[in-house]
Amino acid sequence: VINAINPLKDVDGFHVSNVGMVGTGQNAIAPCTPLGCMLMLQRLHPDLKGKTALVIGHSNIVGKPMARLLLNADCTVIVAHKSSTNIPQLARMADIVIAAAGVPGLVKADWIKPGATVIDVGINRIPAPELGLQEDGSARTRIVGDVDFANVRHVAGAITPVPGGVGPMTIACLLVNTLLAFCHLHDIPAPGLQPD
Description:
Structural class: alpha/beta
């Protein structure tokens, strides 16, 4: 279904043409969440060249395109996933850690190199008995990320919260991609909205 969409109108950045162009460093519509992460990273680190980045998770929606965008920015990129056996050691070497594994609280404070930048893409709903019960008697839940925010924030140089960090950037980047696609389709010069 995704590949039936005109790649020039693929504002999600999932069409095989856009995936391939992003992967080869060409100008293309990038997936919204990785694009948002790159914009945040470039605001904090205007020059990403030579930085070591660990991407935890290798999904087609976040992990793989995130790794490609980081490679395009001349980072040294390590990708870890559920079969990786040494994620804590890999994380301790990284200047940037991007957690997109879908495992609540996976990334611990002792995994993080002091001063590293941590971007938490995870959105996990967990039971929250401290919040009581809902009107229907079911347990309340709360949203947490893949990073143990309460403890990692004391080690990291910068960290995104969940909720309220990457999510709003994803929405903003969907709007950016929509504007860029419109400009491209109508031969209008696009404003400088993409990461370098």
